[in-house]
């Protein structure tokens, strides 16, 4: 165990003066033009590795970047997060909302030659609901059963109307594994999906090699011969690899943008539904007391994190649903618990902790996460709270917190899900995978049931807004800010789309042919 070095108040003032916020904007080298090279290999450096290649048991939403290249899903999402056809071409709810019929794409096979059909969908949903260690079972709980109506049609029989189901099936719960591979002992290393690419080499924590699958149903989505994905947790390594021509794209740290653009690197602001969070296990340490959780909000200078560490590539919000989401309540301001160390100390005293307390945070090896941890550690120390940190690799940290339920608190970026009810269910319900202590409130549970049963968009939005008010009142966790991470690309890259959850799928990405 080691403690992250505290970022003292004096040093933070120096950083504020020296690191003025950057205005997020594109710049650097211009994009190449001309035809795409179908033989090219697109090389993307990811900041974190993969927890496992089993999409039903993968423990981190950051795994999606790795998973969705090789595992296709029943439903896809468009650039604004709306459900669109994937392996399913259409779906409709029954009159009372307790069934959903889905029409499947015909002529699709898994990478091992197994046909994709209604029987495969039924087998996958049943596995996702029951496999040991499933991370998606809570999202599929409303699904009572799946009936095969025809080779290309299935019916989801629901325990109650479940408006979130199409978008739930656009995430890992809707990822399709070849049923013939369910029992493969090496499935976590050798995936068998029906996606755009096959995995041809995998070094855990170091590198994944993908090559184009034959006869993918959407040929416009596959415009390169393959994708190589080295894992570089260090942002300096990513930038150097990009400048040296070893990779074609990566997410940068905001502080690197000026340097990258000066060196001719093309930089574009990303889009994301992810947020940086400071998430306590509310059954550990002193976090069961809402006054302590509110004190944590008041103790952290969130705006300084955006201005100094994120260099302006972020926006404050107090909700785990982004502004463009129908669940985001516009009546809640971005800072309901403003930075106020005196108020934090008062709340701690009211909770019987005038002398403060100590807790352990799990922090990844990412330099960006380390910097945020250091700043927060200093803020907490100023009100008498001692934060120690256990530093883990990115691929280990979510398993440790969510699966093994170790550590008092998790710090990091993530959290975005296609449907708002997925986010609230996973993070704030007793059996949510991302709620290791199982803490909730009766009001949060009641509202979640309403959200899931309500199909009318306006009424559903009202229930979600009430959930956000309950979230803020109970200070379930601290939403630090929403990042808009800068994406760096080589000039040869064509048609790259960053993806709303900061987890690109690389559909249609291409590289310009040599002139």
TrEMBL record:
Keywords in alphabetical order: Signal, Transport
GO biological process per UniProt: peptide transport
Superkingdom of the source species: Bacteria
Single Gene Ontology MF annotation: peptide transmembrane transporter activity
Span of the signal peptide: 1-25
InterPro entries found in the cross-reference section: Peptide/Ni-bd, SBP_5, SBP_5_dom
Domain (Solute-binding protein family) ranges: 84-420
Gene Ontology CC terms, in alphabetical order: ATP-binding cassette (ABC) transporter complex; periplasmic space
Family classification: Belongs to the bacterial solute-binding protein 5 family.
Protein name per UniProt: ABC transporter substrate-binding protein
